[in-house]
Amino acid sequence: MHPKELRIEDFIYPLPDERIAKHPLQERDASKLLIYKEGTITENIYTNIADNIPADSLMVFNQTKVVNARLLFKKPSGSTIEVFCLAPNGQYADIQTAMLQKGKVLWECLVGGAAKWKPGMVLEIVHSEPSFTLSAQIVERSPTAFTLSLEWDDAALTFAEVLHYTGKVPLPPYMHRDAAIEDEDRYQTVFAKEEGSVAAPTAGLHFTDDVIQRIAANNIDTAFLTLHVGAGTFRTVKSETMAEHDMHAEWIEVTLENINILTAALSKNIIAVGTTSLRTLESLYWIGNKIVNGETPDLQNIAVSQWDPYDTQNTCSTTDAFNALAAYMVSNKLSKLITRTQILIAPGYTFRVVNCLVTNFHQPQSTLLLLVAAFIGDDWRTVYDYALGHDYRFLSYGDGSVLFRNS
User: Fold this and answer.
1) Which H or E run includes 285?
2) Does residue 176 belong to any structural domain of this protein?
3) pLDDT for the residue 232
4) DSSP label at 253?
5) Could you report the per-residue pLDDT of 78-107, keeping only the tens digit for each?
6) Residue 114 binned pLDDT confidence (cut-offs 50, 70, 90)
7) Cα–Cα 20 to 30 A to 220, which of 46, 55, 114, 288?
8) b/e code 324-363 from CB counts within 10 Å (16+ = b)
9) How large is the average pLDDT for residues 130-150?
10) Reduced to 3 DSSP states, what percent helix, strand and coil does the chain have, rounded to the nearest 5?
11) HSE-up (13 A, CA, CB side) for residue 127
12) Residue 299: inside a domain
């Protein structure tokens, strides 16, 4: 069956609100860990995750950093207009370039209370330490988002710094609460590095420096890449079948050094920490496959569209794809691959890179749940029923799992 024919009603399960983790546990690595392998489920905690991963594996982490994407502007009347910064305007080469802009940016945003924002009205946030004013004005309105001009009067500050000072942590909407002091640290992985996400790569939230040291002590290698998580990760599928669903695109960044590390590790177990890492790794294969087939990948726009994996006729080996990608980068003097992927991984997908997935428990009717169903087949229901029946906490601050792929 082509994934276009999948009915989203087949990927629904009951998720009571009380099972959604609204706050993190006191210790990151104390979360429960469900291990699924060859149809069998066992339990542990994240402190011991290294003991449940085969030695000589490669674990791949997403090092994106969440930005304070929620901005609360005050109108002269005193009412609040909430702005959620989604992604930079298309004029910027990539999200990092946009984050380093000084003085002014154009940003695609969601606006709460937009009806109260009259044409030509300039809203402001005045920050005292350091002292600067951030102003916002609508450039363009569309049915899905607004293009805003955001300007600030301290030319030394980058937009990333402006968000850090004036914004709030963009907690998922299903938490139904405002961000607190604890979220500034806990809604960020300990290895977060590249600013650009509006949601955390939540599988990585459970890892501590001690856990990573134990992974290394167990002869398990690590590598880091970047997928900047967009707000589309929270969007459930509303269409009856997947054919009508428009998958969101997200920025990825992978260095040539890490592509070479991945190429050398293809004969090992490759463990993706998070669905974002998995989507990036599988996208790398499809970019490389295009190169093998004589195509020039569209790195300036979307390198992998949502249906590419299902509509491509000629597919090469994983090793050939990665070798071709590395050679392409060398010949084009690219030390880092920066592009966007729209890849949709759903039942019917053939995995090319990843053998094992570390992930949290996802929302019903989500593309993330479809990915899990593609990875372990119909046993996704067995896993989720077990988690619901054994007091596992769900979604971003919840517990997690190690899922070995059913081939």
Assistant:
1) helix 275-292
2) no
3) 82
4) E
5) 788 999 999 998 888 889 899 999 999 999
6) confident
7) 288
8) bbbebbeeeebeebbbbbbbbbbbbbebbbbbbbbbbbbb
9) 92
10) 30, 30, 40
11) 20
12) yes
Give me the number of domains the chain comprises. 2
The answer to whether residues 152 and 261 belong to one domain is no
In DSSP terms, 133 is beta-bridged to 126
pLDDT tens column, 307-324: 999 999 999 999 999 999
Both 30 and 162 in one domain: the answer is: no
Are 238 and 377 found together in one domain? yes
SS3 258: helix
Q: How far apart, in whole angstroms, are the C-alpha atoms of residue 166 and residue 187? A: 17
State residue 47's pLDDT score. Answer: 98
User: Could you tell me which residues come within 8 angstroms of residue 15 by beta carbon, excluding any fewer than 6 positions away?
Assistant: 363, 364, 388, 394
Residues 50 and 73 in one domain: no
131: CATH:
2.40.10.240
- Alpha-carbon dihedral 323, 328, 333, 339, rounded to 10 degrees: -100
Specify the pLDDT at position 113.
83
Boundaries of domain holding 198: 3-65+188-404
Task: Indicate the pTM of the whole model.
Answer: 0.95
Q: Which amino acid is at 333?
A: K
